[in-house]
Design brief:
single chain; alpha/beta; Rossmann fold; seven-stranded mixed β-sheet; six-stranded mixed β-sheet; about 30% helix
């Protein structure tokens, strides 16, 4: 096989970050008919790190329009994420003095989970969302949303219609675009001279330190550090002037960026994060080569838990039909023989099966009927929210389990 090239700088990709074999698309929830017809296709899932620009990237095995044009993820199903968005809207409105004459544009705006809060504060909003089915939900809420992918052409079209953004938000999308250079260039076009962009994305440092290999899947083309993001922003004549470290998605960064010529002054937090990444060797290849052997320990830990549960005659189910859970289950080689059911609030997933593992997806209301002894929380980043909302499991002596970064049974 030929050596793939870096999607950002074109250098040959010769260093493996994590090779997870072949897995199905993590958000491709399948029907019984599709399973019978063999339509649950697997693709290589191999993440490499570029020795030149240090971008960690999964190979582009699947085109973006095959993943995102009809999307099963609705942000509003997570109460904690909606509250995170509300706090963001209040904070940004106050900090950057947004008002009725301002325009907030969110890229990958999903179902309006964030822009609805700016609208409630009297700020003009516009979403750009590639998945038509998700955009329709936002539009039904009264959140103006354009359907399509964002990039240079769309930004030019929007600017040609007189749109200039005072704030642009892009939450958990920077990692989802195959051409990250072209994507970022679109922000430079649409952003006003003193405008601000915030990008939120899982920090690759946490992925490494906490063995979050289950956050690697085909729609996540990139795994990002401040080192790399500053590099790609510089190609669009933009710079980072502030950063927040967030607990979301297992540990994320929110970076604040602006035009190189804007007046926003850099904060000490940016220098501190640069130092943190340097101490973790994220500015060299050395920092990216420790993950692979630790993945095997996570898999072994969960296999031992399942073996003990089976020997004791205990039943194991899961909560959260999440993409990260699908990577975990498929890399571990698990099926419905290991985990009987998965419960999820999203009605769009209920009645279907998880890709690859073919575990049936049920409504949470079925939990008290099935009464599993153990409930594995697949979206571990929502552990607090899930344990609070599904506390009924304790009524029959059931216990919650988290498998990453190592398997542990939560206290009752």
């Amino acid at each position: 096989m030929s050596t793939p090239s870096c999607r950002f700088c074109g250098a040959p990709l010769t260093v493996t970050f994590a090779n997870l074999g072949e897995t199905p698309l993590a958000n491709n929830y399948v029907t019984a008919e599709e399973i019978a017809r063999g339509l649950d296709v697997r693709y290589p899932l191999h993440a490499r790190v570029c020795g030149e620009c240090l971008l960690v990237q999964a190979e582009s095995a699947v085109p973006a329009d095959a993943i995102f044009s009809h999307y099963p993820y609705f942000s509003s199903y997570s109460d904690s994420w909606v509250e995170h968005a509300r706090r963001y809207a209040v904070e940004m409105t106050r900090r950057f003095h947004l008002g009725a004459d301002s325009l907030v544009v969110e890229v990958a705006s999903n179902d309006g989970y964030l822009l609805q809060h700016f609208k409630a504060l009297g700020v003009r909003v516009l979403g750009v969302e590639p998945a038509a089915n998700v955009a329709e939900v936002a539009q039904a809420k009264g959140v103006a949303t354009e359907v399509g992918f964002f990039g240079v052409d769309r930004a030019r079209d929007m600017k040609g219609r007189g749109l200039v953004a005072d704030l642009m938000a892009a939450n958990n999308v920077l990692a989802h675009v195959p051409d990250i250079r072209e994507f970022v260039a679109g922000f430079e076009i649409l952003l006003g001279p003193e405008g601000v962009i915030t990008f939120e994305f899982p920090h690759v440092l946490n992925l490494i330190n906490q063995v979050q290999f289950d956050t690697i899947y085909h729609e996540h083309y990139s795994y990002l550090s401040l080192v790399f993001v500053e590099r790609v922003l510089a190609t669009a004549r933009m710079r980072v002037f502030d950063v927040d470290e967030l607990p979301t998605h297992g540990g994320s960064l929110r970076i604040y960026a602006c035009h190189e010529t804007a007046s926003h002054q850099p904060t000490e937090r940016v220098d501190l994060l640069r130092l943190q990444e340097s101490e973790a060797h994220l500015d060299t290849l050395e920092g990216y080569t420790t993950l692979a052997p630790r993945i095997e320990k996570v898999k072994s830990s969960f296999a031992a838990f399942l073996s003990r549960a089976r020997a004791q005659g205990k039943t194991v189910a899961a909560y959260g039909a999440a993409a990260k859970g699908n990577t975990f289950l498929n890399v571990c080689g698990l099926t419905a023989a290991d985990i009987t059911h998965v419960f999820d609030r999203a009605t769009s997933k209920q009645g279907r099966f998880l890709p690859g593992s073919h575990i049936p997806i049920l409504a949470p209301e079925r939990l008290s009927e099935i009464r599993p002894d153990y409930l594995v929380i697949l979206p571990w980043n929502l552990t607090r929210e899930i344990t609070a909302s599904m506390s009924e499991i304790h009524d029959w002596g059931g216990r919650f389990v988290v498998a990453v970064p190592e398997t542990h049974i939560l206290p009752p």
